[in-house]
Design a protein that fits this description.
Blueprint: E1 5-10, H1 14-27, E2 31-37, H2 40-50, E3 54-58, E4 60-61, E5 64-65, H3 66-70, E6 79-84, H4 90-95, E7 100-103, H5 108-128, E8 135-139, E9 142-146, E10 151-157, E11 160-165, E12 170-173, H6 177-184, E13 190-194, E14 197-200, E15 204-207, E16 213-217, E17 222-225, H7 230-239
Parallel strand pairs: 1-2, 1-3, 3-6, 6-7
Antiparallel strand pairs: 4-5, 8-9, 10-11, 10-14, 11-12, 13-14, 15-16, 16-17
Helix pairs in contact: 5-6
Length: 242
């Protein structure tokens, strides 16, 4: 993933646009808002000119319906996350392959989970092309992309996650461990060994067969495996042995 995901916001309420824009700025640094629109006419012009990768789309646009906007495209060339104060358009959203359907008021946890699905889908497409996905990490006023191969482990830190790299860096991101797991799922190399710890199986240096069981990583980190998951984890690790 070479850059932030080009994103457009479409809603007929100025307050809703402003609120969503601020939520994205604070919780989803992997997105870059490149434009907004508040009716079908201006939205179609914006979408055709800017060609975004992701669109947050309100169902009702004044007296119009956003599905009429989508009918103007032979093939929808962007991912859609619907936003609405009404819950009765789920079937219609499903028919246009929407990534998610967020009910207003939008909560940051729901927003982050929806964006994680977008990143995961993009990662799957990259994997199909033989490309390695990168994880966007918000560090102060910049976004840095970390390759999964450089990550040794992930550790839950309340509603945040600490990303520990092979070269000893610790990057704290404002996403839950479960959200980061969702983004990394396409790589198929990360496994949760404890409710608060996920490790990169490619960097396991060794493990104990005793109880408690410990896994040692190539950067020297050592983590205990939960008793409930011990047999499952050991089976996975043994499957990678030569």
């Amino acid at each position: 993933m070479s850059g932030r995901i080009r994103t457009v916001l479409i809603d007929d309420e100025h307050f809703a646009l402003d609120t969503l824009s601020k939520l994205i700025e604070f919780y989803c640094p992997e997105l870059r808002v490149i434009g907004t629109a508040n009716d079908i006419s201006s939205a179609f012009e914006l979408l055709t000119q800017q060609q975004p990768e992701l669109v947050f789309l309100d169902i009702h646009l004044a007296q119009e319906n956003s599905f009429d906007l989508l009918k103007q495209f032979n093939t929808i060339p962007f991912e859609i996350i619907f936003t609405s104060a009404h819950s009765d358009y789920g079937v219609s959203a499903f028919k246009v392959n929407a990534i998610d359907y967020l009910l207003k008021p939008i909560w940051n946890d729901d927003l982050e989970a929806a964006v994680a699905k977008v990143i995961q889908k993009k990662a799957l497409l990259q994997a199909g092309k033989g490309e390695e996905l990168s994880i966007p990490v918000h560090i102060n006023d910049t976004v840095e992309y970390i390759r999964p191969s450089a990550i040794s482990s992930l550790v839950a830190n309340d509603n945040y996650t600490d990303i520990l790299t092979l070269n000893g860096r610790k990057l704290t991101v404002s996403k839950t461990l479960a959200t980061i797991e969702t983004i990394l799922a396409p790589t198929d190399q990360f496994v949760r060994i404890h409710r608060s710890v996920v490790i990169n199986t490619q960097h396991v240096a060794g493990y104990s067969k005793t109880t408690p069981c410990f896994v040692k990583l190539s950067n020297g980190s050592c983590y205990e495996v939960s008793r409930r998951k011990k047999h499952e984890i050991l089976a996975q690790l043994k499957a990678t042995e030569i």
